[in-house]
## 1
Amino acid sequence: MPLYQDAIGEMVDAFARLPGISRRGAERLTYHLLQAPPEVADGLARAIHDGRHSIHYCQRCFNLTDEDLCPICRSNRRDKTRICVVEEARDILAIEASGSYKGLYHVLGGTISPMDGIGPDDLHIAALFARLETEPIEEVIIALNASVEGEATTLYLISHLRDKNVRVSRIAQGLSAGSDIKYADHMTLSRAFDGRTEIQP
Amino acid sequence: MPLYQDAIGEMVDAFARLPGISRRGAERLTYHLLQAPPEVADGLARAIHDGRHSIHYCQRCFNLTDEDLCPICRSNRRDKTRICVVEEARDILAIEASGSYKGLYHVLGGTISPMDGIGPDDLHIAALFARLETEPIEEVIIALNASVEGEATTLYLISHLRDKNVRVSRIAQGLSAGSDIKYADHMTLSRAFDGRTEIQP
C-alpha cells in the first residue's frame, strides 16, 4: 500500500524539490496546508502562479521585476553614477535591507566557475561593460560572495575594468559584526589584516 | 521604495506564513522559483491547489484521504482488531515508515490542552469510543507524543477506556535508538527505568 495518496505525494514531492527543504520538511508543509483553512493553500498556490508569470529580469540590471525596468533602475532617487555588481538578485535584497548603498545594481547571474562549465560569457558581464558606455557611471563596486568563485570573478572583473575609465572598488572582507577573533577562521583573519585601515592620529 | 515588487512580496509573505519557514527562507524559495523553469513553479502551485481540493479527513479514522475512507481503513490486509491512537495524521506516516504496526489508526486531531482551551470534546475521542461499539476491536494502543499534553491525554484515554472491554496499551518511552545514556535527560532516564523489561533466565 502506498504510504500516502497520490495528491499528497505530489505535494510532498513538489516541496521536497525546493532548496533547503528535506523530505520530512516537505511532509510537514503538506500536512499543514491540507489541514489549514483552504484560503491558506489557495493563497500560496495563487501567489506562486501569479509571481512566476508576472516577474522577469530587468532589461538593464537583471534584477527581478514585473515591468521592463526594476524599481531601482526606474527610481529618480538613486545615485546613477555608481553600479554595484552582485551575483544574484537576492543579494540586492540584503544590501537594500542594510541601507548601506544608494546607487544602481548589476546582477551577474552567477560567478565564473570552470568546474561547473560557467565562463564569463555565461554571465551578464558584456551587458555590464555596455552600461559603462551608455550610462554616466563613475564607480563600479564589486560585491560578490567571499567564495573561491566570487574571488575569481572579482579578479576577472578588475582586470577587464582597468581600461574602462571608471573607479573600481570591492567591498571589504574581515570580521563580521559581533564575531569573536578566537573563533574566526584563518582566511577571515588574514583578509582582516590585509584590509586593515589606518587610524588618523 | 518597496524592497520588492508586489508579486514577489506576496510569494515571500505566503511562504513565510508556513511553519518552520523564516523570512529569509521564504525569500530563498521565492527567488529560486522565480528563476527556475516555469514548470517548477506551476507544478508546485498545481500540486498545492489540487491537493487541498481533493484531500479531506477519512470518515472513520480522520487520516487524510481523497476518498470516503483512507487506504488503511479500506485495506483487507490490516489487523482490524487493533486501533492505534495518534495525535495527528502525519504521525501515521512515521509509524507506517517504521513498519512496526499493521492494525488500524485513529487520529485525535490534537491533545487535551487546557492552556489552549482544548478539551476532550474538541478531539475525535467520542468517535473513537463509537468505533469500539461497532468494530471488532480487541486492543487500543495509545501512541501520543511524549509531551505534557500527550501524557495528560493518554491518562484521560486510559481512564475512560477502562470500562470498554478492550485491552489498552501505550507505546514504550525510554532511550531512543542510538542515544547515549550520559546525554539523556532526567525524564527519559526515569521513564526508561520505570519501563524496564525483565530478562527471562
Note: Residues 58 and 70 of chain A are 5 Å apart (CA to CA).
## 2
Amino acid sequence: MSQEVTIVRNVLEANDRLAQELKNNFRAKKILCLNLMSSPGAGKTTLLERTLTDLKTEFKMAVIEGDLQTDNDAQRVAATGAQAVQINTEGGCHLDSGMVLDALKSIDTEGLDILFVENVGNLVCPAEFDVGEDYKVTLLSVAEGDDKPEKYPFMFHISAVMLLNKVDLMPYVDFDLDKATGHAKKLNADIEVMPISARSGENMEDWYKWLRDKRAEKL
Amino acid sequence: MSQEVTIVRNVLEANDRLAQELKNNFRAKKILCLNLMSSPGAGKTTLLERTLTDLKTEFKMAVIEGDLQTDNDAQRVAATGAQAVQINTEGGCHLDSGMVLDALKSIDTEGLDILFVENVGNLVCPAEFDVGEDYKVTLLSVAEGDDKPEKYPFMFHISAVMLLNKVDLMPYVDFDLDKATGHAKKLNADIEVMPISARSGENMEDWYKWLRDKRAEKL
C-alpha cells in the first residue's frame, strides 16, 4: 500500500505544479476561473447555458467541458455563442490541471473575462484536484436530498459557493434548506449558499452579482 | 505514468481475488448479493428502506452501507429491522471487496437470503470494483436527466438493472424515458429497465419480482 500512497502523492504534486502555472496565466490575463462541480445531473450545464446567455453582453466567457464520453455538453454551451472545448476523460473520474492546460490551447484567451471549467459529474474525486481555478463552485440539486453536505463533506469544505439548484422542485421533494445550509456552514463557515433554479431562472441574480464581484476583484 | 498504470492493475487484481472469495462464500450459503450504485441522492437508501419493509416476512436480508462519512444510512436501514453495517471510506470514492469482506464479519449470514451492498454515491469509480456481487443494480433518478447513460456509459454497460427512480417527479422535469432506455440498451442489450418510485411505491412490484426470480436462481 505504501507504494500506492507515494504514487497518489506524486500525482497530486504534479497536478498542483501545473495548476500553479494556470493560476499565474489567469492572474496575468485577469481571467476569473471557476471550477464547477456536482453530482451527475445537478444542473451544471443548464447553469452555464443560462449564465452565458444572460451575461453575454457584459463579459467575454469561455467553457472547458469535462465528461467521460460525448461532446454533448460542449455543443449545448457552444449554442449560446460562447467558446467551448470538450475534454473526454475516457472513463477518468475528474479533470486535472494537465487536461485544462491542454484544452486551453484551443481557447482564444485574448480579452477573456471568465473561464468556466465544468468538471466530471462526481461529488467525490474532483474535490482533490485543483485545475488552476480562483474558486470552486459546487451545485447541489434539491432532488438529491439535504443530507449531501454531511455525507460528502470534503467537496463542501473546499467550495466557495454552494448553489442549491432546482428550487423549482422544492414542492415535490423532501428538502430542508436550513438543514443543508447548516451542514455546509459547519464544514465551511465562509461558504456562500444560493438557492437558485437554472431552469426557471429563479434567483439567478444572486449568482450573477457574485460573478461580477469576483471578476472585479481580478482587475 | 507506467508505474501508475501497474499500481492500478495490481489494485484491481487484488480486488478481484477477494471478490472471488466473497462469491464462493455467497454461492455456498445461497445468498443473493447485489451491488447498488448511483449518483449521490438517486434514492438507494430509500429503495432499501421500502424493499426491506415490504419483503420483511418473505426474505432474511442484510445491508452493507458505504459512505465517505456518517452512519446515517445504516441507521435508516436498521430502523426497518434488518441487519446493517456501515463502512466509512474516509474520502474514498468506492467500495472494494476487502471492505465488504471486513464488514461481513459483523453480519450473521446464517439463513440470509439477500445481501445488499449500497455503494458510495458515485456514477464513475464504483463501476470498476467488483465486491463479490451476483448483479450490479444502478439507480438513475429522473431528476438527473435522460442523458446520463450516454455520458456515464461504463456504469450502465456493466449493470444488470437500471432502476429509473423518482418517476413521481416526471411531470416536473424534462426526462425522455425512451431516450434514456434507448441509450442504456445500446450500451447493454440485456439491461432490464424498471421505472419506479421508491418514495411513492410506484411499480415496486417489478423490482420485487426481479428480486424473487434472482434469489430463486441461487437455490
Note: Chain B has a mean pLDDT of 96.
